[in-house]
Amino acid sequence: MISKLILVIDDEEPIQKVVGLSLKMEADWQIICASSGPEGITLAEASQPDAILLDVMMPEVDGIQTFERLSNNLQTKDIPVILLTAKTGTAEKRLFQKIGVTGVITKPFDPLSLASQIAKLTGWLL
Amino acid sequence: MKILLVDDDNALAEILIQQLTIQNYVVDRVADGEMGWSYASTFDYDLIILDWILPSLDGLRLCQRLRSDGYGVPILLLSARNQQVDKIQGLEAGADDYLVKPFDIKELLARIQVLLRRMAAEPQPILVWGDLCLDPVSCNVTYQGYPVALTAKEYALLELFLRHSHQVLSTSTLLDQIWSSDEFPSEATVRSHIRGLRQKLKAAGISADVVETVRGLGYRLGTYPSASNSAQKISSTVSPERQAQYLEGLTQTWQTHKGESIKRWRHLAQLSQTLAKQGMNEQQRIQAKQMVHSLVGTLGIFGLLEGHRLAIKLEGLLETMANTPAATQTKQFQVLVTTLGHALDNPPQLVAWTTNTPHSPQVLVVDINGASYIQQLMALAIAQGLSVDSATSTAVAAQLLALDDSATNYLETATRLPDVVLINLVGADTDLMLADSSSQLLLQLITKLNTRWPQLPTVLITPQADFGNRLDLTRRGATMVLEYPLSPAEILEAINQATYMRYRHSKIMLVDDDSHYLQKVMQLLQPWPFQITPLANSQRFWTIFKQILPDVLVLDIEMPGINGFELCRVIRSHPEWQHLPIIFLSVHADQRNQSKAFSVGADDYLTKFTQEDNLVDRILNRLKRYHAWCNQENGILALE
Q: How far is CA B144 from the centre of its chain?
């Protein structure tokens, strides 16, 4: 199994930790964390993660704005971005599809198949 | 230590809460006797402080009710009555102590400490887990009234689990508590005794696991099984050792961050206190929504199922609530927030969240008085995963149950009905008897309900459950008649039982040549009381089918000899089996096979491995429809 580095952008520290725990236990992947959109973009530029898990609902710069900035940034535009959200109404789903994210994972997620879900969305082999 | 304070004097209550909180007690406060009854009978407290004079149900009567229901928790009665005769009356009602107002707060704190100390020194009354009872005085263990013989160590283990029903007990804790140091026990000794205990309880007829293993952490008392309790178990490919490590890490992370969730809950609790008087402004609403939203996410991630479900309900309530909410909404908000506070004490669990949530029994609660204990019951039901709808008038209930609308499609409507209807026939908190006009309306509703939907279980709560009244209610169609007062938990158990009974005789026949897959489906259906007949050899189909006469048939497509399409055609070729529900469960997800299935007479089509979580839902819907059709047919036959 090839190890991956996932950047988690979420303002909730407990969620960062549980995501880290889940990915570690299921697939031995590593994570790095950012608590805000701007911090996440800086970290993505510097560390070039294999994928980004991005929370939608964050104060100030939300997930959608962060995604737009990541997409317009030459250094980060090719990194797959997966949204992490509790909101999955039809309107939201349509919006997420339209903006071109790699995928959406609904919170709460199945903790011990999170890596499989990310792999499925990105086309990686686990 | 948790204390329930039942006092309608806001000024005094505020001081008491402040002082008790300083002493590290966790305090729930309610302002009337009926709410006191709801809280005391729903949550665990270490002590109850009761004021004598209370709205709806006075402290003395509440005390008597708690004692007659077997609540052993210490009760301290507060009263301005200082006559000797009053004190005697209070103590005779079951209070452990009596304090005359006005009092010195230091004296109250000292008396609380004495009561708690005394309680810790005294053994608890009989410990119960469903029908399993352990009497610490006589050291007898019984299941459904029959004695269960245990060794001394097995008995001690069972007593320890029953006394610490919400705790995971590590092997070292069990060794410390039950074995003396000169016995030189090992971890294997504990495992061996737990195995022995499980075997004896199983031999006594208890099918559920009384003692559950929490891998890597220890053991805990299992959850008492009920129809609603079909919690999603983890079905991961991750090894049990990794699962245990994950749970351990999750528990540690929760311990570190629990404070943040409690802080958010406190904010909501404060809002719930001021909501009735001041309503809320837009800023408070936005803040409350953010708090609840964070709780939904956090509690879900940590597998605190009950809290997660309650937070979702609160989120929905905040969406619909006006800035000056109606009294019923305020009450609902308060009850949900309090119940959520208790749910935060639960330990994290390993929960496999799937996109398709499994079927949760649907309950329609008809309560025209907005009774406190019904509000509490609804919060508890939501926490346990039931889907709850409520009707505050008989007109709304009739509409939700399509009682007056004969034009609607009978069978289509049948699939949308709840699994059970609960009707509260208890009057206002002050007078238990309903006004004649309300009573008549509710009785008419019960009769109509039974005439239109005789298969739908109806649970009634009444203050009059003597033989005559019970006979009248059952003649009208009641499935269960519960006598008030009883706790919300007891009502919930009755609801679960009624739901469970409804599907008890339903026969499901599964035909698939893959016997491993058959086992998997049987496991999926296991929480429900269906009579399941699996069949791997389709050549024997007709013989078995005629013996079983199933209520639902689940078919695979590709099978050696005779395939699923052919079986379906054979069934539909018979006039008697035109309405039998047939569901295809196949690995093929393509449109061609689906169309073919429907063209040969299937009612439904699900794809294996991706849609099987929906199977229970689909089976229940088909059963509701099929039972309604059978009733309709029987009615026509009777008329003919």
A: 22
